[in-house]
Structures are given as structure tokens and as C-alpha cells.
């Protein structure tokens, strides 16, 4: 069973093949339109220095040392903060994060001091309660 042949395509519409007529050019005396605005590049293009990883680590460990494990994490945060500050100052502006390193030093020291105060207070209370029990 063969199929019957397809009919020929319809003839094109009159007027050159389409009904679209472009608009006439504007009458403005031949003044070209202004150029499109340039893309925003983010300011003067100055590169922002990346933060030193040790500064971030010092900050995180300093905060955690206040909450728990101040005996170990406090000195580690302070030492990493000192090392990071020296690296940042020696980089000549290539590394950022000096503020984070300083806050890591401070929170590390605070975490260690809080741990020492809590430990001394705990043992003082324990000794006082043990002496009263006799």
C-alpha cells in the first residue's frame, strides 16, 4: 500500500515574501543615538587582599575557647593570632585579616583566663565543702 503523493506547497504571499515592513528611520537631523552605558566594574578595580587562614582559625578557636576547652584552645588561638599578625604585616598588604588575628589573640587570652578562674573557683569550693563535711 503506497501513499498518495503530497500536494505542492502553497504559493508565497504577494509583496516579496513577508508582511513585515520595517519602520522608517527617525527624523532627527542625523544625530546618532548615545552609546550604551559601560558595565559596572566594582569601583576603581582595586584588589581586596584575601584573609590569612591563620587569622580566621585564631578567631574561631578564640571564640570556642571562651565557651569550652579554654585551657588548650586559648593558648593555641593566641599563638596562631600572633603568627598570623606577623605574616600579615610582613606581606606588605597582600594578606588581610589583621583585625581577626587581633580578636583571636584577645579571645584566646580571655578564654584561658576564664578557664583558670573557673578552675581555681571550683577547687576552692570543693576544698571548702570538704572541710565543712568533717
Provide a compact summary of the structure:
With 134 residues, this protein is an all-alpha fold. The chain contains 3 helices and 2 strands; from the N terminus they run βααβα. The longest helix is centred in the C-terminal third of the chain and has 35 residues.
Description:
The chain is mainly alpha-helical and about 130 residues long. About 55% of the residues lie in helices and about 5% in strands. It is built from three helices and two strands, in the order βααβα. The chain has helices at about 55-65, 70-90, 100-130, and strands at about 50, 95. It has a two-stranded parallel sheet with strand order 1-2. Helix 2 (about 70-90) runs antiparallel to helix 3 (about 100-130). The chain starts with about 50 loop residues before the first strand and ends with a helix.
Amino acid at each position: 500500500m503506497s501513499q498518495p503523493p503530497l500536494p505542492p506547497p502553497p504559493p508565497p504571499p504577494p509583496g516579496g515574501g513577508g508582511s513585515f515592513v520595517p519602520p522608517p528611520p527617525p527624523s532627527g537631523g542625523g544625530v546618532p543615538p548615545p552609546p550604551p552605558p559601560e558595565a559596572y566594574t566594582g569601583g576603581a578595580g582595586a584588589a581586596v587582599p584575601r584573609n590569612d587562614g591563620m587569622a580566621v582559625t585564631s578567631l574561631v578557636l578564640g571564640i570556642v575557647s571562651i565557651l569550652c576547652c579554654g585551657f588548650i584552645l586559648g593558648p593555641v588561638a593566641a599563638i596562631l593570632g600572633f603568627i598570623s599578625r606577623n605574616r600579615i604585616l610582613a606581606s606588605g598588604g597582600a594578606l588581610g585579616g589583621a583585625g581577626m588575628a587581633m580578636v583571636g589573640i584577645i579571645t584566646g587570652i580571655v578564654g584561658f583566663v576564664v578557664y583558670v578562674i573557673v578552675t581555681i573557683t571550683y577547687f576552692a569550693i570543693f576544698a571548702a565543702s570538704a572541710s565543712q563535711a568533717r
